# Entry
Amino acid sequence: MSPPAEIPGLSFGATKTAVERAISELRSGRPVVIDFEQQAVLVIGVEAIDAELAQGFETVCPGLSRLVLPAPRLTRIGAPRSCAGSIALPQMDLERIETLALRIDGRIDAPVALATPLDLAALELMSFALVLPAAIVAPVAPEALPDLLHVSKEDIGSFRSLQVQSLREVGRAPVPLEGALETEFVVFRGGEGLRDQVAIIVGKPDLTQPVPVRLHSACLTGDLFGSLKCDCGDQLRDTVQRMSRSEGGILLYLDQEGRGNGIANKMRAYQLQSQGFDTYEADAALGFDLDQRRFDFAAAMLRQLGVSAVEIITNNPLKIAALKAAGLDVVADRRVLGRPTAENVRYLASKRDRAGHYIDFDALTARASD
# Structure
């Protein structure tokens, strides 16, 4: 009997599944093992470490654990770096770990080693899991701990691109909106985050011409609850109504809460902002760069909808550059204004001054006085 033919896409799916399972384990507070060539490390996120897990690390690899932190957090605690590094943990001191990884008054207390490839893979997994970007890592034998989930460094490294390649439409339906009655929602599976992505097609845009498009990252506080700390909800509703009044367009609603950091980390950053940090200072104190988001999967969504040329509606130069880099023809970029409030003016100024967003405060003031 001849051997069974290989099922198309099976290895592709196995790679994604291994990483998705590792994400689930970490979010549930359980450690995983990352394998690479003849090496392996035991990994847990800092926010999940407790006395029982700490004792487990001490038992499996006594005195060999290390705390891996990204460059922004190391810089915050007094060890300026342009890349991630690790700090030795000869003892699993939970208070010391929390101080180094999370506390605002934390200060470096030991030498910082350059992060290894496995350290970087651990931080990448933390990013996928939308947990705090800090990990406890300890070397183990590759064959050790067979009862724990093992995932390869190579699978972690290819996960984002596989998410884009696997992007597919899973449902669509007309959903009339206030101020935009002719609207269709198209749901895609894949891309970033932990939920599905949504394309909102407003009216009947002519796909043979450049299509007005907005990439809108989900903002629970602003979009749903009308938070005064940002202008996201205003931008969302203004864009949909503008498209409805004109030739139509497409708004992509992307699962990228908190500039890709996740809702829990966004709330941590908000707490720091209440203490005087601006939006980017708060993220850096937690270990995040200016922006964690990628938009290659957004370009893939547009292509599947039949779009090849766009007029992008955004204030963010990264979104413009991302669509161009993905091969879409960006023929024009338009601004979108929210309402300035006493609570969001510093946020808007920080986006303009720190991240280069195209925000015209004269135009915002004029809108506020209308």
About this structure: The domain at 10-158 is CATH 3.90.870.10 (DHBP synthase). The longest strand covers residues 39-45. The mean pLDDT is 94. DSSP finds 15 helices and 14 strands in the chain.
